[in-house]
Amino acid sequence: MHFLHPPRTLLRLTLSTLCVFAWSGPLLADQATTESVYSDSLLPLLRTYCFDCHDSGSDLSLEDDDSATKIAGNRKLWQRAFAQVQLGTMPPEDGETMAAAVRMRMVDMLDQVTNSVDCIQAPNAGKVVLRRLNRTEYRNTIRDLTGVDYQPADNFPGDDVGYGFDNIGDVLSLPPILLEKYLDAAEVISGQAILTPLPPQIFETELAAVSLVDARKYGRGDHLTLSSQGTVALEVEIPFQATYDLTVSASGDQGGDEPVKMEVVVGKSKQIVDVKNKQMEPITIPVRLDRGKRRIEFSFINDYYLAGKADRNLHLYHVHLVGTEPAAKRVKESNLPASHRKIIFVTPSDTCSEDQATQQVLEPLTRRAFRRPVNPQEIGRLARLAASVRADGATFEESIQVALQAILVSPHFLFKVESPPEKSGSGQSPVNPYELATRISYFLWSSMPDDELLQMASKDQLRDREPLLRKVGDMILDPRSNALIENFAGQWLQLRTLQNVEPDGDQFPLFDDHIRQLMQTETLTFFASVMRDNRPVTDLLDANFTYVNEDLAKFYGFDKVLGADFRKVSLEGTPRGGLLTQASILTVTSNPTRTSPVKRGKWILENLLNTPPPPPPPNVPELEKGILSGTLRERLEEHRANPACAACHNMMDPLGFALEHFDAIGRYRNLDGEQPIDASGKLPDGTEFSGIEDLRRILSQQRGDQFVRCLAEKMLIYAIGRGTEYYDKCALDEIMGDLRQNDYRFADLVSSIIESEPFQSQGSRE
Length: 766
Hints:
Number of helices: 28
Largest sheet: 7 strands, antiparallel
Shape: elongated
Structural class: alpha+beta
Distance between the termini: 41 Å
Number of strands: 21
């Protein structure tokens, strides 16, 4: 898929400014300060708003944890409490009313106490997981290593998903069936990447002499007897020009002073053969034959007869012809595929032995495949493997094919192998330069480092801010960064599920597979423009432009957009803007027959605010079933009458109501059936809104920091291949501080993640 590639100037300029500004991170409180925050500020709020229901002895007691230390030790429980306060679902409607300013202050204190960690004294980069390449990474890496686009990788077993992404080390297992597919794939890929001559064709035919042309004149049982001047012939279709071995089984009745003589004629060529043996013997004659229909004649040419004393005759029994196609001439360099020339850049010659050429080919190939320098023992093993293949009669190219197969099934290729961290007081250490290069390339490209990135690693330049940011800017603008768009954005926004959505055809006849693809292209192209134009990431919520082509424009009801190519269009004067009003998002958050405010609200909470609601309680009826009736809004109000449902639905439903002007496939409407759309809502914290414009403003302005932190955490998870923990709060605080100073620009988000402690270092495996 092709996405926009804006000029490099803006991105490079912004990245270069990062070298000028030094970030001033958040103030880090020690434990004494944290205890003071708890006792002096947080505890009074807990007593006022929480302990009435969650006192000691209750089903969910918060009162028992009477210090910041105990809260940190019971972190999972308090993180749930923190989420509920942040959502506005606690305290409940029948509880003590909490002003918005008080709620914000309580959220900040809960965050500080619950996630308290001394970022200076006890940094933690998280555990290192030996992580294999997922299907996309495998395919991209094969492409960049060999030049082969191995599409059967799509038929590998599906990769498990953790924390919303399919590149999480903890869930990327290696089932036996996948190992078998790796072995099969290595053979296919090596065969496509390296051109080898086809095995020589062998032609063979064998006839009894009595089956030769004109044999009936001389036939006697199982053989022919030529008793005077006579000729028989073999007529055969020759498939290729070569020198063939012609074997004639013959004997002779001897007489006179010379042996029986047989003349073999092929075209203008003649050979005379002596048949000296009275018993049948095989006589082999080399003959040069051109391609096509050919005639080989056998003649008795020296008849001799002396009455009563001697009679010279020629006896023929069998004719056998066999030939091997000559070895093909080396393919011209210009006819070799690019993958072949890329891998085999040197071949054996008078000045370069096969062993020397093998070493020269395998060293850079293995270094790139393993994404690090390789030692002589590793190259030696591969070279010996290639030599053993040649010893069995294989060509140089075939021996490199086998060595390549061994490389492609090596754990050093299939896994992102990182050295164990050095023992240190902090329990963590920086990853080495090559491991850092690999982390960067798989983050931005879902593929191996290019030569420049490996060269920077060899010079240990990847921790020098200026060259690092220059390279990151180039990588973002490179077409290979489409992988970040498709894999990160596609999973974060749940666009992959769009392929499985099937809106009801009777109610939504405009939806088909073509529109489905256009919806996805719009969102990914929009994300690409924010990334490559280095716009503020908040534009993802409230940008007044999008990308459509003629067909999607007609679907939306836009005028003056022509052609199949996507182009940027203004949304001024329309109710649309940002991700929330794009048809892809609206479709994946709907039911087949109707919209779903619950799904849409839940999607916003999970993907834009990082506050996913808990799972629903059991035995809750669907809206279409049971006693629920009336309009969709009325049915949801009845649904919320259940106290078990109210806490979460009071947050989800109003968010979803704001999108009700858009039907289940994202087209704008003013009526739901015959009922006017009511897109107003009120959040649990008392914030009121009317429609999507108000909601976009709330999310991008009042809750903009929460959205940006959500995006930063999602992208950090994707970048490091593991879920975030409480100790990652320090890194996220630093990333947010950097973003605030630089207007939330996309390039700053990427660069801050790459420069963060979790990305740059590794902690204990234990």
